[in-house]
Description:
There is one protein chain. The protein has helices spanning about 1-20, 45-75, 140-145, 220-225, and strands at about 135, 170-180, 190-195, 200-210, 215-220, 235, 240, 250-255, 255-265, 270-275, 275-280, 290-295, 305-310, 315-320, 320-330, 330-340, 345-350, 360-365, 365-370, 380-385, 390-395, 405-410, 410-415, 425-430, 445-450, 455, 465-470, 475-480, 485-490, 490-495, 495-500, 505-515, 525, 530. It is mainly beta. It has one domain: Methylamine Dehydrogenase, Chain H. The strands form nine sheets. Strands 2, 6, 29, 30, 31 and 32 form a six-stranded mixed beta sheet that branches. The radius of gyration is 51 Å and the shape is elongated. The N and C termini lie far apart (about 115 Å).
Amino acid sequence: MGLRRAELKQSSLDSFISRRNPSREDHPQPTDHHQTSDHPRTPLQIHGGESEAAAEYERARTENIRRNRDFLLTLGISRGVHAPRSDSRPQAKRKVFPRECPVSSVLPLRRSARKRSFSAPSIEIEPAAPQSPVFVDSSVFQYACKRNNAPADRLPPLESSPSSSSSCSSPVLGFRVTGKTLQSRSLAKIYTLDARHVNDERVLIAAGGHGGVISVFGVDENSDCEEGLSQEEIESPLLSWKASKSWISGVFFVDDNPMLMISSSNDGKIVVWDVGRQPFVDSLEMSWSPPSVDEAAGLHSGGIFSMHHLGHAIVTGSKDSCVVISNFSGGRLEMERKIYGHHSGVIRSVCFRETKDIIADCGGDGCVCILDGRLSEPCTLTIESTHETHINSLEWCPSDRNILLTASKDPVLRLYDIRNHAKPVQEFQGHVQSSTGICSQIYRPAFVNNGFMIATPGEGSQKISIYAVDSGTLVSKGMIGYDANLVFLPGENNGKSHLWTAGKQINQLRSVKFGELNGSSKFDSDCGVAAQVF
């Protein structure tokens, strides 16, 4: 390839030189005696001729530039005409300018725009006014307003609240499971329950528990007691919402307004809810939660484990070992007194006696304390129980206000008389499966039949057991098909007593009294009750 380039370059130079010196062909150049005309010339052999041709080419170029310059000068054009540059031109000296002192200025120094950081222009946008959610009459309100299937736009006159201490026309023989099963898919375990009659036919049931969920159900006592109605039918709640980030420890309806509900939870809050209203479906509110009327978040420094009320007086027991007495008045919750120092652990249950001044509580230290809110030193009595574990539940007896019922995770219920508390006056056992030692879940028994009987669930038995208070004997036991956490007796309504059991679901048990059994009923010799009744 290099040889070919040399031959092309030599050919160009030869043609140029032949044009400039045509007589060169008449005088051929002498050749070396080692080279003949038949052999091609190599680059080394033509090096001398190439230098002479280049010099001749430069002289011709210089002459051509001079002629062009002279021609331009004759035309009067002198701008841009320069003499040909020589290879050895003097180097231009770099001008050195004196360094100027910086001029002080309030303006910032100019720098490259590429290195300058520009901040986005600040645009002040006025925040949009928050839109209040649109609330409408809730399904709970609509259910309570209907009476005898007749629509109404306001609540009927409130019935007097039934009391568990109301006198019984005749002794209760037992209970029969009746009505539909109440169940909420969002409420896996129920820890607390309350019932409120809105008229002589309809009852509102409030349930709270696991996951901070509260559900409100509607029950028609007359239709649910009809023959042929299967307990396998499931009734969904009228209203269900997540009321807390933690589990619900207590719920109850306000006595003089069943559309107001008060709840306590393990996050230490007490909230008043207006269950008569709920968000409109197309509103911006993405929850079915009813509006809250008031909230008290600073009553306790720990989670609230239990709550009880008597009228508008509220007492709460907490993980901070404190008892707080509050009052709900004018739509506001106000703390009246805080009592502490009488327990060394969590206060797991609290209960008013017959006035708001006397309170019984129990805790993780296994002790029961009687408090008098009128005294500067409120703890008047401490009972060291014989329970094997901490006490989870206690209740005053309706027929004798000196008797307390206590329950723990051991399989024995105990009655204590505060007048002579050295040992229990009665013990009840057999409701828990015999193979069960210490129960794994908390359960809450209740007084029934005006305090002459006790109804209790039992872990592993899937039954409700009925005991006689005076003798401590088992009166009856009936299957409900699941292990309940609690039983609740709101009291009589029109001479009828309804017991409610709750666990994963809620069932209604109607009391059966002597004289109500028909001739076809047969008695169970083991329990002494009718086969359909326990």
